[in-house]
Amino acid sequence: MAWRASTNCAQAPTITPTGRSALDINALAAIIAPALILPSLFRPGVKKLITAPGALLINCALSGVELPSNSTVPLLVMTALPAAVRARLPMVVFAGESPINAKFYNQYIDQAPLVTATGAHYIAAHSVPRMMDYVREAFHIAKYERRPVVLGIPYDLQKVEHMANQPYETSAMYQPKVGRTHPDPEVVAEAVERLAAAKRPIILGGRGVLGSGARDAVIKLADRCGALLSNTLPARGLFHDHPFGLGITGSYFTSLGREMYESADVVLAVGTSLSYYVGGGHYFAKACKIQLDDAPRGLRDGQKAADIYVRSDALVGAEAILAGLDKTLGVGKPTAAAIRSKELAHRIATEPADSMPFDIAPGVLDPREVIRAIDAVVPKDWDIVVGGGHQAYFNTQMRGRPAERYTTVREFGAVGNGLSYALGVAAARWQGGEGKIVLFEGDGGLLFHIQELETLKRQGFRILICAMNDGGYGSEFHKLRADGIDDSLAVFGRPALENIARGFGLRGHEIRDVSVIPKLFADFAAQGESEIWNIQISDQVTAPVIRQTIKRGHGNM
To answer: What is the CA radius of gyration of the chain?
Structure first.
């Protein structure tokens, strides 16, 4: 799929692989928007940046897609690219460079160091005869190194007519057929021994489980060894329908999830890199950690990732451990696990994620109650898209929603990208006025890209935007208050976001009472326009992740 960022909409339309026109959106949004659909596709996406006036330029045949572009990579992508890098999202950014033969160019900037500083790869395409080689290299690196690649082509070279002597060879033609990675039998035997003896085992699944198609195998393994199940934030909802699924592990723990992990004796992490925010030593320090991953690092975010490393594809590795348990114990013979019970299953099904009491002022709402009310009316097959900031914890605790319908990128921790994420999902689903997408974003984050409401209107997408409005940057003012520092610069009031939506020709409502939510949602679902709910939430309710940060000391990792 292709996106185009433009200040000049006179360019010829870009056609996506599905035959749809590319979106003309803000330059930063053009980088961010496609990022969210890529984890499920596990293949590179294409982005083009057009940020200065220009006509239709070079036509580069990227697997049969014509991609026009000119001008330079804007500095705004300095938050989008590192987010994509850290999330290991394969994408190709087709961007212009300053004219290579010009004596002077007002917008000249050496953009390669800016791009590489984010961890993305930069290709300076300065030879017309080699242009197709550059394109193929860009897609190859994006796919096999799983990171963004910026393909920079000077403005004047884009105007040059070029006819290749041979047909373009795509990067797929050079794909080595290596098959799935199989584990070392000796390491599998060690993992089997630990799991067979574990009394309180937990299996943690990440995005690698989704990519490998290993969900059923992991569930079967958990049932065999009597383990509880949980998932990382990017794979939120991976085991949503299992009675012993604890939900998210790490910073976004539920109270019950944290309790269970504190007493776990073995944690088998499948298809996850065990980042600081998932595998930090303060989360489950007592447990023996076994990492089953196709690329275990050993050292991750300054800490030891695990105690035992099983290098393997998630599906093959899970099946190998399952077979090992049957061989060691005998088919159907139980392990030592004693963590599952009817009482625990009942607690998982009924206990709220967080029940810390707070004083809620009249006229504003507890965000936890808001999420429960929205969760009750939004069908389970709708996409849930989440931005960043303090508000992001609460909506991750919605129940009964599969991982395939949850999208976010949080690896860089930047706010303000939620609306662009939702645009990417809307374009991928391409449901138009029948779109089934709910975006949760903070008030501050939404204002970062509020201009993209025009894109929603023009493209005809239907998205319900739930703006969790606490009057400022929640993550900041909660930390400032805890440190005894004036929070006034992080508080900006409560803008009438519903009126801004109406100004763009969309719908908008302010919400100060959760009882109106069922009627408002029914009205929204019955029509075809995007809508903002300006939900006035209390600025006194702190999410557990912020409470833990405050307890530990902001900046102490």
So the answer is: 25
Tell the CATH topology of 356-552.
Rossmann fold (3.40.50)
How far does Cα 169 stand from its chain's mean position? 31
Buried b (16+ CB within 10 A) or exposed e, 206-234: bbbbbbbebbebbbebbebbbbbbbbbbb
Is 2-174's fold the same as 185-349's? yes
Give the CA-trace dihedral at 235, 436, 394, 407, to 10 degrees. 30
pLDDT in tens, 256-274: 999 999 999 999 999 999 9
pLDDT of residue 59: 26
Q: What pLDDT was estimated at residue 292?
A: 98
Q: Is 387 helix (H, G, I), strand (E, B) or coil?
A: coil
- CATH fold, domain 2-174, is Rossmann fold (3.40.50)
Q: Is the pLDDT of residue 18 over 60?
A: no
pLDDT(557) > 70: no
Q: What span, in angstroms and rounded, lies between the C-alpha atoms of 251 and 249? A: 7
What is the average pLDDT score of the chain?
A: 86
More confident residue, 553 or 549: 549
The domain limits of the chain are: 2-174, 185-349, 356-552
- Are 536 and 364 a contacting pair, CB within 8 Å? yes
C-alpha 260/C-alpha 219 separation (Å) is: 18
Q: Indicate the CATH number for domain 185-349.
A: 3.40.50.1220
- Structure-token pair, residue 260: 């269970």
- Residue 376, strand partner residues: none
Residue 413 pLDDT > 60: yes
DSSP string for residues in 505-531: T-EEEEES-GGGHHHHHHHHHTS-S-E
Per-residue confidence (pLDDT) for residue 398, from 0 to 100: 96
Beta strands in 371-427 (DSSP E): 383-386, 406-407
Q: Taking the mean position of all CA atoms in its chain, how far away is CA 443?
A: 19
